[in-house]
Amino acid sequence: MALKHDWTKEEILEIYNKPFMELLYEAATIHRQHHDPNTVQVSTLLSIKTGGCPEDCGYCPQAARYHTDLEGNDLMSVNQVKAQALRAKASGSSRVCMGAAWRNVKDGEEFDNVLEMVRTINKLDMEVCCTLGMLTENQAQRLAEAGLYAYNHNLDSSEEYYKKVISTRGYQDRLDTIGNVRKTNVTVCSGGIIGMGESEADRAGMLVALSTLNPQPESVPINALVPVEGTPLEEQKPVPIWDMIRMVATTRIVMPETQVRLSAGRTQMSREGQAMCFFAGANSIFAGDKLLTTPNPDVNEDMEMFKMLGLNPQKAFEKKSQPESVDAENSKYKSQGEKPKWTRPAHKIDRNLEAQQKAKTKA
Ligand code: SAM
Ligand code: DTB
Ligand code: SF4
């Protein structure tokens, strides 16, 4: 059946608010039509450049302007990354997702090093994902040529609520970056966070924005906010597991072929809660005791959970074949020295300004 690309907010809200058992049954049925319900893709996150970020994302411990207890790090070396990727592979991950606390990618030595990291991990026969901030078309092509499998760039919320969380860039910048990735062979990973104070309509709005992309993203991470002290969202209440299950189920229904990733926030979820998410259509997780900067369940605990539920980790390149890695000297793309004009809306977000003020007094 052809995928539907014209979902409306009303239709999605109606699904989200169905009686729980109906919602679960519908989502599980669609899940089985498109995926093996006993297979879950496992990714390992690696923060290759931590902290010191110039953006004001209200949820993020890596934003330099807030006072969090985070130890920042410059870009890792290719060798360090290779060693971590080998560890991830040995522990059963099929994908490494490298995150950098950057607003956008800048051409130069650091980006050249990231391209080398991509080549190195792809040559270990693992899927490579990067999340590096905004990206031009040329930069996306260079990552593709190096052998990148996926690019993560979250919409994070509805367009309306995005303005209440971030003021240093606009929603359209995110969509444009996703568009740039789409022009290449690299798959798109884009999702968001729930539990930031958004309404159900905002959750549905985010799913409209994602599901009306054509093609729909190959993977959609659903994160539960990890509230970090010092960030503007430090006092948000934990998101109820029921909301997480509803969000996963709704995502599964509106994007049947997508891999739905049960992402941040699993340390707060029981195994029963996570099992319900898998039943509702989640078929990917982040494994390893750390996400980018915050804790995640221990790998052994996750493998125990998989055993208990009869789940098997997905093999690398099961959904799409392995890209080739072109070495740097044979690259047909050169840095274009572009200085893209990503927007800076700079509207006022009171809770962001307050958190920034508090950080100044603490300094
Ligand atoms: N700097 C790049 C960017 O913003 O696109 C890449 C790294 S950024 C940390 C990647 C994603 O992590 C964000 O889009 C957000 O969805 C997620 N994230 C960050 N802090 C989080 C938190 N406290 N809880 C849940 N998810 C979070
Ligand atoms: C995504 O959607 N979640 C991951 C990954 N993509 C990059 C990041 C979660 C970060 C949680 C907060 C932290 O550990 O810093
Ligand atoms: Fe920077 Fe990304 Fe964190 Fe925003 S989410 S502050 S862009 S690292």
Automatic annotation (TrEMBL):
Residue ranges of domain Radical SAM core in the record: 38-266
Main enzyme class: transferase
GO biological processes: biotin biosynthetic process
Region (Disordered): 314-363
Pathway where this protein functions: Cofactor biosynthesis; biotin biosynthesis; biotin from 7,8-diaminononanoate: step 2/2
Cofactor mode of binding and number, as noted: Binds 1 [2Fe-2S] cluster. The cluster is coordinated with 3 cysteines and 1 arginine.
Binding, [2Fe-2S] cluster: 97, 129, 189, 261
Annotated SUPFAM superfamilies: Radical SAM enzymes
GO terms of molecular function: 2 iron, 2 sulfur cluster binding; 4 iron, 4 sulfur cluster binding; biotin synthase activity; iron ion binding
Keywords, ordered alphabetically: 2Fe-2S, 4Fe-4S, Biotin biosynthesis, Iron, Iron-sulfur, Metal-binding, S-adenosyl-L-methionine, Transferase
Regions of compositional bias (Basic and acidic residues) in chain numbering: 329-353
Catalytic activity: (4R,5S)-dethiobiotin + (sulfur carrier)-SH + 2 reduced [2Fe-2S]-[ferredoxin] + 2 S-adenosyl-L-methionine = (sulfur carrier)-H + biotin + 2 5'-deoxyadenosine + 2 L-methionine + 2 oxidized [2Fe-2S]-[ferredoxin]
Pfam families hit by this protein: BATS (PF06968), Radical_SAM (PF04055)
Entry keyword annotation includes Iron: yes
Cofactor(s) required, per the database record: [2Fe-2S] cluster; [4Fe-4S] cluster
Enzyme nomenclature, EC number: 2.8.1.6
Claim: tRNA-binding is one of the keywords in the record: no
Sites where the protein binds [4Fe-4S] cluster: 53, 57, 60
PANTHER family the record matches: BIOTIN SYNTHASE, BIOTIN SYNTHASE, MITOCHONDRIAL
Function as written in the Swiss-Prot or TrEMBL entry: Catalyzes the conversion of dethiobiotin (DTB) to biotin by the insertion of a sulfur atom into dethiobiotin via a radical-based mechanism.
Assembly, per entry: Homodimer.
UniProt family annotation: Belongs to the radical SAM superfamily. Biotin synthase family.
Protein name: Biotin synthase
Organism: Christiangramia gaetbulicola
